[in-house]
Structure formats: C-alpha cells, structure tokens
Amino acid sequence: MKNMFDKIILLLAVFMLLSNVFSVSADISKKEIKMLDKYEYYTYPRMKEYLIDLQANYSDIMYLESIGKTYQGRDIWLVKISDNPLNNEKEPGVLLMGAHHGNEKPSFEVLIYFIKHLTEFYNKPNTDDDNDGKINEDIIDGIDNDNDGLVDEDPSEERVRNIVDSTQIFIIPMVNPDGVEADTRKNCAPPDGVNLNRNYDYKWELYDLYPSLYGGKWVSDPYSGNYRGEYPFSENETRAVRDFVEQNKINISLSYHSYGEVILYPWMHTSAKTPHEDLFISVGENISKIDGYYLYTGKDYPIPVPGGTLGTSENWLYGTQGILAFTMELCRRRAPTDPNVVHKYLWSHVGVNLYVCERAPTIQIDGPPRSRIVQGSFLHVLSLLHRMVHQRF
Ligand SMILES: [Ca+2]
Ligand SMILES: [Ca+2]
Ligand SMILES: [Ca+2]
Ligand SMILES: [Ca+2]
Ligand SMILES: [Zn+2]
Prior knowledge:
Elements: H1 2-37, H2 44-57, E1 62-69, E2 75-81, E3 93-97, H3 106-122, H4 157-166, E4 168-172, H5 177-182, H6 205-209, H7 217-220, H8 236-246, E5 252-258, E6 262-264, H9 277-291, E7 294-295, H10 313-321, E8 324-330, H11 339-359, H12 374-390
Parallel strand pairs: 3-4, 3-5, 5-8, 6-7
Antiparallel strand pairs: 1-2, 2-4, 6-8
Helix pairs in contact: 3-11, 9-11
The structure holds calcium ion (4 copies) and zinc ion.
Residues 138-139, 141, 143, 145, 151-152 line the site of one calcium ion (CA).
C-alpha cells in the first residue's frame, strides 16, 4: 500500500514538473510570438527623446522647436528639415501633420519614419541598395521602374538631398500628444476633450445656423467624439498650428489620420467644388499612384450639398490660407500591429511625402479662394451677420 502511495506521489511530482516545464515554454513562445508579431508604435516620450537625438546629430538640416503646450503641459513639437534650417529661406513650404486624433497611431508613425529617412539619406552617399550594379534605379514611387519584379528597392539618396536643399519641410508628428498618451481621439481638455479636427475656424457659424446639416448634437455635445469646442481655436493645439502657419509660407499640406486608405481634399463641409478642383485632382491622383489609396473627387464625395464636416484643418488651411491641403486616411484599421503591414505604409508614404515636396514649387495659390457657390453667397451674408452679432472675428 505504502509503495503504491509513493508511486502515485512520484507520478504526481513528475506530472507537475512536466506540466510546469511545458507551461513555461508555452509562455516563452507566446511572448516571443508577441514580440515578433506586434509592431510597437512610438509613444510621446520616446518620440521626444528620438527627435532630440536626431537634432543633435543632424543639426545641419534639422531644427526642433516647441510651438506650444497642451492642456496637460506637453510640448507640441515641430521639426523643420531644410538646408540652413535656422534661416527662413525663400523656398516652397510643405506642412505635414499627424495625430490630430490621438488614437490614430499610424498618423504620427509615418511622419517620424519620414524624418528618419530624410536625415539618414541626406548624409548617405548614393548607394546601390539592392546590389544589382545600378544605382538609385528604383525610387519610392509605387512603380517597378527597372522591371526586375521588385518595387522601390533602390531609393535615391540624391533625390532626398535635392528636396531638402530646395524645400522647407515642416513636420508636426503629434498635434495632440495628450490624446496620443491617453490613446483617445480628442484632446484632454475638460470635461471630456475636444475633437481638434473640428476646432478650426472656417465657416464655423454655419453650424449655429443649420446644426442638423453639420452633425447635430454630435458636434455640440461635450461628451461626443466629435465635440468641436466652445469657439473656434479654443484649444491650445489648434492655436499652435494656426500661429505657426500664419507665420510661415506653406504651399501644400498633408494631414495624416487613420483609417480607410483614402485621400480627401476640400471642401469638407459641402460637395461643391473649390476653384482649385483640377489642381487637387492632379496632385491627388499622383499620390494615389504611389500609395494606391482611393481619391475621393468632388463628384463622388460622400458629403451632401450643403452639409458634412465643419472645423477641419483642411478647410481652414485651404479656405483662409490658400494652402493646397489634403487629408490622408492611412491603413485599413486604425492601428494595425502586423510589422509587415506597418512597414508597407511607412515606406509608401515616404514616397508620397517626397512627391509632395517635389511638387510644392509648382503650387502657388494667391490668397484664400473666393467662393463660387451661388447659393453660398446667401449663406455667406447670413454668416457675416451672425458673426457680427456674436463678435466672432
Ligand atoms: Ca540608393
Ligand atoms: Ca540598384
Ligand atoms: Ca525594381
Ligand atoms: Ca519605384
Ligand atoms: Zn482622424
């Protein structure tokens, strides 16, 4: 009997030991898979540290500056990349922004990666990256330029140098760092945050006149994800962008969001066309050739006339500053974690950003566009009256 008991104890001990070993190894392999499979996005502190490091190493072409503080006291970082970055030169300006919505991680990742690409490639000699004996034969443009079955495998160092030397590139990777850290769409101002991409001042008063056409209670309820704030530019983040833009010459701008794999351009509050529809389509189609995203043109806009979204950065940048402004909706999910998927869109949008920089010199819009909408002129008079009453100039 005792012998039997001992055997059972022994068996139990062996079993426990084995199961322990198995569960430990299962844990390890799970962890390894997690590490291998999950892309790790930048956090605000890691981005800050990285940008400060880059600035120290590449001060010949990079200037890092805080353009304002958030509600929670974080700096809103602006990276300028150009030759002679401390001087304001007479070169075309490009503005790239990410993370108006804090939980749209790809939107800042793509810009941090672009900054990395510019600084690295500017200082790198022309290199045969794929070792085929030809140098820079397949730039990042979504096309297999040398017909070898590989796409964009030998990007051009010289192209980066030409762009950096002839353009002023302004990048705000995280417009809304509080939202990034809290992983929320809105900023973190009380009581529940403001949707920064509804807080810009362009025809703000149309909502007061026709709330149901422009989002109804979703826009006025402070607890809604689309809450636009109490008044235009009520938020530190949007004011920081506004003040920066007003002090600098900018020709073209991309504001990154996720998701949808689509390219949008003004107007965002009506399907009526702007006077620069052809230019928007020309640039938009070329972007689409690089990243394969769908360009929403005026005709198939999912926006009623009038109706849609007020307070977006694009409407303000284009409508008041005369900047050709696009919205880029990255990815098929808000924050993909497959490293291959992430790398693919980081790479293709290096190509998109380079293209936009090259195109910038040909884009000159003289002042804000004039409204051509006939029915808009009546709205315009109403808006002005409304503004006078509410003193919102
Ligand atoms: Ca190369
Ligand atoms: Ca090559
Ligand atoms: Ca190729
Ligand atoms: Ca190519
Ligand atoms: Zn967004």
